[in-house]
Design a protein that fits this description.
Strand order of the largest sheet: 1-2-4-3
Largest sheet: 4 strands, mixed
Structural class: alpha+beta
Shape: globular
Number of helices: 3
């Protein structure tokens, strides 16, 4: 989101809807958020804008902690965390997702 703009609840709801059909593409295991995980997340969010991650029970952090650490590191925003899964969003340089106003 950059420039200190916060997502509105309407935009967040829209992204949650898109995330429902998205595949989980990032798995956080016992090693937690590594440099490799951050690179994968950065590449994936640049390509897709919205990514879903899963935190395994062996991870030494909660899904919210993992999502917030990743989002902060790659300048993205946590859309939601439910159970062991989280959704992260960052507009691409050429955005494909058009957020409602």
């Amino acid at each position: 989101m950059g420039e200190g703009k916060r997502m509105t609840s309407k935009q967040r709801a829209y992204l949650r809807g898109l995330a429902n059909t998205a595949d989980t593409i990032l798995i956080i295991g016992k090693d937690g958020v590594t440099d490799n995980v951050l690179k994968q997340a950065d590449d994936a969010v640049e390509a897709r804008e919205i990514i879903k991650l899963k935190c395994l029970e062996t991870a030494m952090m909660t899904p919210r902690e993992a999502a917030e650490e990743i989002a902060a590191a790659i300048n993205a925003e946590v859309v939601q965390v439910i159970g062991s899964k989280a959704v992260i969003y960052r507009p691409a340089k050429k955005p494909k997702i058009v957020l409602p106003k």
